[in-house]
What we know:
Jelly Rolls, globular, mainly beta, 151 residues
Amino acid sequence: MPYGFVSLGSTTLAAPASSITISNLPPRQNLMLVIYITGKASPAQTGIQFNTDTGNNYTWSSLGTGPTQSSGVGVAAIYLEVSAQTAATYVTVHMSNIGTLAPQVGWHGVVNGTYLVGGGTWATAAQVTSIKLTSAQNFNTGSYIEVFGAN
Length: 151
């Protein structure tokens, strides 16, 4: 991996589920997430939550081709896609993880052949130790997240 990134862990769904969680992440100042959603049972957005925080502590904005834009302030997750999807989604997320500052999150990827890019933040100044992908609909089997870290 570039810039000294090493794998901190990964999780792959063996059966459909509405969330994918990776926990016990060691402290690293920079995190990179590789996310592949093989599809969803019905249209829904993919959200990211940190450290089991399900409160309205996230802000995000995403832009797809078209251009189509969507955003949220004071919401329960950072949503990667501009709109609800069933199609496969591949996203790379880069984020700060300093611990004394609110994590800044940026991403780029592809959903159903359409490019997307976005950014957001978690309003809590804390070290991220767990990451949860969440959806109102089940992610298909084989969906996964891998987390890399560097100081």
